[in-house]
Design brief:
two-stranded antiparallel ribbon, globular
């Protein structure tokens, strides 16, 4: 039995997104300690993830375990995130990148983390997000199919998950058009 069977799929994918940010952020900051010093609120998230069955694992081991467990729970899942991943043939990195664009909807403090690593105005930019997720689908395809919206941020543009889709991913508004109702993009 995988640990993730006891977690809500949104929470499991949130954990994967946060751990992935830790991995990228720690490398950019020269280590976990430096990264946490810059963003001390993340201690709470690390504790929550550890207490959910990942205690004693390194960040890379946690990410590997999450990927293994999520690949087993995604097939045939009726949760909107798992259904969207399966239906659109997204990799775990693509769904994680999509989630990065919505993390500030859950906790505005992620804005500073994302701004430091990926973009402006507390949201990822297209170029940096493209370099961190795989190319199938591209960020342009995610935009073209309504999975992301692009907003002006001064001279730049940033990416955000549309509110209705985020609410559906959270398990709210399941009767409203949302993730599972968007057409499959053309690969």
């Amino acid at each position: 039995m995988t640990i993730l069977r006891t977690l809500d799929p949104f929470r499991a994918w949130s954990f994967r997104s946060i751990v992935s940010l830790f991995v990228h952020g720690s490398r950019a900051a020269g280590g976990v300690e430096n990264f946490l010093e810059s963003h001390p609120f993340l201690f709470g998230y690390l504790d929550e993830i550890a207490q959910s069955g990942f205690e004693g694992l390194t960040l890379d081991e946690t990410l590997e375990r999450l990927d293994h467990d999520l690949s087993k729970t995604t097939e045939g899942s009726h949760h909107p995130l798992d259904a969207a991943r399966e239906r659109n043939l997204w990799s775990a990195d693509t769904l994680t990148g999509w989630m990065w664009c919505g993390l500030t909807r859950e906790d505005p403090r992620f804005g500073k983390v994302l701004e430091a690593l990926l973009g402006r105005e507390g949201l990822p930019g297209r170029a940096t997000l493209s370099s961190w997720i795989d190319d199938s689908p591209s960020v342009g395809e995610l935009l073209a199919h309504g999975w992301l919206e692009e907003l002006d941020a001064g001279n730049d543009k940033v990416l955000r998950v549309p509110q209705a889709l985020w609410e559906t991913a959270r398990g709210r508004n399941l009767n409203e058009p949302g993730i599972t109702h968007l057409p499959k993009h053309q690969l």
